[in-house]
């Protein structure tokens, strides 16, 4: 077999990427890198036929140093390791970052990288919950609302108020592969660990489905409070973001 790797325009990998997304059937964290022009695309060829693709992003937008997508058609997966080495050589990528629920790229990560670690846990929807807190209600944010200062998340489209006092905000982001959306929320510091985050997430999940999207989420591994809130809102851990430095080309 003759193999080669060719850098191409993003549109040229779209048919193969559609198969990748279908096979993943999960939120792809870095999906927006393509639309925003933050990635380089490579077609993988075997005997003159395009059988897969690889995508390279950068920790900084100008850099293209990290493989973050890699897909090979099932009938050519016995050549995956060889094609991946050729992708590394053609792109010069020195890092690999992938979701652990992406079996194809995870396999290449553990074969070709060292110093593998994770800082982010991924969540998928799992169960319907029915939390309720006396005097607490969730509604859409109004123009006249005065949100509390946010430290890590944007002010959401939905607010949780207690007696007219906004104590948490949240929403869902749509710049991910359809039908998935990314949940986020933040609770005012003095009202944390009182169940408000789980109640808000529960209601935002409902709104997400009404918008025709499937809720997903992610958070830092060390953020025990947020992980607990997501679990109590019916989400479950479905994977981790893995990173490693290329050890073998």
CATH topology of the largest domain: Aminopeptidase
Succession of helices and strands: EHHEEEHEHEEEEEHEHE
Average pLDDT: 95
**Terminal CA distance:** 20 Å
> What's the name of the CATH homologous superfamily of the largest domain?
Gcn5-related N-acetyltransferase (GNAT)
Low-confidence stretches: none
The CATH level-2 architecture of the largest domain is identified as 3-Layer(aba) Sandwich
Number of strands: 12
Quickly name the level 1 CATH class of the largest domain: Alpha Beta
Query: How large is the radius of gyration?
Result: 21 Å
Approximate strand percentage: 35-45%
Strand order of the largest sheet: 1-2-3-4-5-12-6-11-10-9-8-7
Q: Outline, from the CA principal axes?
A: elongated
The figure for the number of domains is 2
- Tally of separate helices: 6
Largest sheet: 12 strands, mixed
The helix-and-strand class reads alpha+beta
- Helical coverage, percent range: 10-25%
């Amino acid at each position: 077999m003759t193999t080669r790797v060719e850098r191409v325009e993003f549109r040229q990998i779209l048919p193969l990427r559609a198969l990748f997304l279908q096979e993943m059937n999960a939120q792809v964290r870095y999906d927006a890198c393509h639309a925003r022009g933050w990635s380089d695309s490579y077609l993988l060829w075997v005997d003159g036929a395009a059988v897969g693709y690889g995508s390279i992003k950068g920790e900084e937008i100008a850099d293209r140093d990290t493989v973050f997508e890699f897909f090979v058609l099932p009938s050519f997966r016995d050549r995956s390791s060889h094609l991946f080495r050729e992708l590394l050589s053609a792109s010069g990528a020195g890092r690999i970052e992938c979701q652990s629920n992406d079996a194809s790229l995870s396999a290449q990560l553990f074969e070709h990288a060292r110093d593998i670690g994770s800082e982010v846990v991924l969540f998928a929807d799992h169960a319907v919950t029915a939390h309720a807190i006396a005097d607490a209600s969730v509604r859409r944010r109004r123009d006249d609302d005065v949100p509390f200062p946010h430290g890590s998340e944007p002010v959401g489209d939905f607010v949780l108020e207690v007696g007219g006092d906004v104590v948490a905000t949240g929403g869902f982001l749509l710049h991910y592969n359809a039908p998935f959306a990314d949940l986020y929320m933040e609770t005012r510091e003095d009202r944390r660990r009182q169940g408000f985050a789980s109640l808000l997430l529960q209601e935002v999940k409902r709104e997400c489905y009404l918008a025709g999207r499937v809720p997903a989420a992610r958070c830092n591994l060390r953020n025990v409070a947020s992980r607990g809130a997501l679990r109590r809102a019916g989400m479950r851990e479905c994977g981790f973001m893995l990173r490693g430095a290329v050890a073998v080309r």
